[in-house]
Structures
1.
Amino acid sequence: MRKPDRMNPSANSSLKNNGGDNKLRKGLWSPEEDDKLMSYMMNNGHGCWSDVARNAGLQRCGKSCRLRWINYLRPDLKRGAFSLQEEELIIHFHSLLGNRWSQIAARLPGRTDNEIKNFWNSTIKKRMKNSSSDSSPNASDSSSSDHKDANTGPGLNNSPHEKVPIPFLLDPAPAIQSLILDYMMDPISPLEQSGYTIQSLPQGREIIGEGTQYLGEYGEFGEALVPPLLENISLEEHHLKTESNPYESKANISNLNTFSGDNIDNNFDNLRKTGSTYGGFGVGNFWNNNNNTNHNGEDAKIGEWDLEEFMRDVSSFPFHDFQC
DNA sequence: AAGGAAGCCAACCGCCTTTGG
DNA sequence: GCCAAAGGCGGTTGGCTTCCT
């Protein structure tokens, strides 16, 4: 059970003069405030959060109301400790998405970005740190070196034609590297043991499901593909959509219409923005998974980012679904 | 039992993006 | 195009709880 919300807000909260006579409360929420917000939200839903604060009779700013609702009052919150499966998914998504907590949260129903962020910064990070205690003396403090943006894409300073290592391999903390690498070496088994449905497809792909729901998949070289953010897609629907071409299909089931950008910075910026919201393609598409050979015929190591491939795919985003 | 350290987590802060006038 | 307001997000803080000595 979650700890009861801390009481006695009057002792902790301060009042903020918002430039006028109306003073805005800050600090912990009282049960009365929660009741007001909850009942208002149940009756009216939220439109403009500033209006919510005003109309619900709360001396709070809209932002504060929004945060309280999202992180605590929302009825669909799961609460309670993270399960092993959730933990695995967090590690997995973090290796792909970096600190984009909201995007990770969007893939874990009932969990908030704040919750996941706290969980990561306390539990998981600590565990990784402990597991690295015997590693390289050069290891820097993982807490300060947390990879800010694992999926920011190839360091944008790199030459566009240069392959760059996948970002998490640049993380100076060996603990994080080894944990993620271990996970990537055999991502399927733990998932299978945890009760997820694994369906093998031709080309070595593995579809991960929970019950009948499609969660995501691993590609032929074990590269994890970020599952698209969909309201709900069943495995059956996914199969229908993937019959012709898995990568194309992933674009088909997503909404990439807003993707635009004619330079690398914009593309990656858009990738960051659309990567989950419009989901669908997964980073796996841009990794060298074409027989381990890049377009120059050079051997390409798994785990290296193929910028050229990425650019090719990106160029087709705005107007068409994926073209392979 | 007391006090300090560490852990945990709700909430704030500041920045960026989006939206509407 | 400009500006202001609102929304959204990740980083950080502060205080309560739990653990340890």
2.
Amino acid sequence: MLDIKFIRENPDIVKIAINNKNEKSNIDKLLELDELKRTKQFEYDNLRSEQNKVSKQIGKLKKEKKDASEILSQMKEIANKVKDLSTEISYLGDQLLALILRVPNIPDSDVPIGKDESLNEFYRESGVKKKFTFALKDQTQLLEINKLVDFKRGVKIAGSNFPIFVGKGALLERALINFMLDFHITKHNYSEMKVPFIVNRKTMTGTGQLPKLENDMYHIEQEDLFLIPTAEVPVTNFFADEILLEKDLPYKFTSYTPSFRREAGSYGKDTKGLQRLHQFNKVEMVRFVKPEDSDTALMEMIQEAGDILEALGLHYRVVKLCTGDTSFASAKTYDLEVWAPGTNRYLEVSSVSNFRDFQARRASIRFRDHNGKVQFVHTLNGSGLATPRTFIALIEQYQNEDGSITIPEILRPYLQGLEKISI
RNA sequence: GGAGAGUUGCCGGAGUGGUUGAACGGGACGGUCUCGAAAACCGUUGUGGAUUUACGUCCACCCAGGGUUCGAAUCCCUGACUCUCCGCCA
């Protein structure tokens, strides 16, 4: 959420940002409502002030057993006005909130302006494309040869894009999760959090998924709860409605959760194999930092996500997202894309974002600085990493001519020493 | 699922329809004392909004939303959540 004062004073900046982000938001209407509400609020405050004063006098008169009936009848009128105004103000307030919750965050000035992913900027790459001397197989072939995933039975028991990891596939997936968690805890000094996979509406609004993306969420109607699309949601809301101490910042949390996404409207696009799933596992990193530290934190987190890929010996690249590809709540986002040689494509395995105070404002996460002043924290998060696509890259980059897969050394302790997956 | 209790500030915990933004206790912070510390004593200790150059003034907030009233933390209604016991179950 943006500061209403900021919108009021910089409507053009906000409008440009909305446009660059391909969002829709009626700022003029919002400002009109804001103005009207403030006028009414002013009237209300004055009337209440009057009412409070006179009520105190009435109290005194009654104590002294004097007659107050004349003032009482006058006050009746004010009381009615106050009631009407208060109804009106709360109605305006609701409308205003509904609008402001749909205003996206403003991209940083160094974010390239562009409509879609084709205008993302190459940032850096790591490692080299392995040279293969044989005909490569892609993920679907490798998964099948080694019997790592059962797609058909997944369809039977849940639906398409709900694969079942079986045997060594399940083992390798679990190994990746545990490896990543351990890595962030021991090498990057994160503290682990195990959170609910189902959250309420307020929580989902706090990080910015709602109201905009309601259609992309799995919703449990009976309780009005949502399946989380990422650990970011419960972990970031951990401190909702709290005022933190400056000395405790930064907080760094890592959390493994499944992620549930309806992927409404994306049918048929990149849905082969493990690329786009309704449920997938992910290890997430979340930080709460002082405003002046968030730029550095973002850079560190990109490297931390990259460290995982480097430890696994996987070639990847980093791109800086353009405005149109940067998500609703984010001010700046970098994606890590890992190389999948089977199809010679780069797959997004991590998205690292600085939200600045946008989420903190929505969820009301603040800290008291050394001057005693209360400020919003900055929040950041990044995948570290999503497992299915890491899985794809791993089996494709580590495939052998016979279709078997060599396990990277660093991962072997997590697979009871297994060196190779083969039939 | 059944029965009951509760929700007040950083925490614990009072609260009569009328100077209660809220007693009291604890914590935290500042000060006095001390070589230093503890103890003791003194003081400070909410958030958001409007207005003002500023001092300040005003408004709102005691789970949420309604209602009664000139006036609500206090009375009434609805809802959410928490806890306890029973039932069921990993």
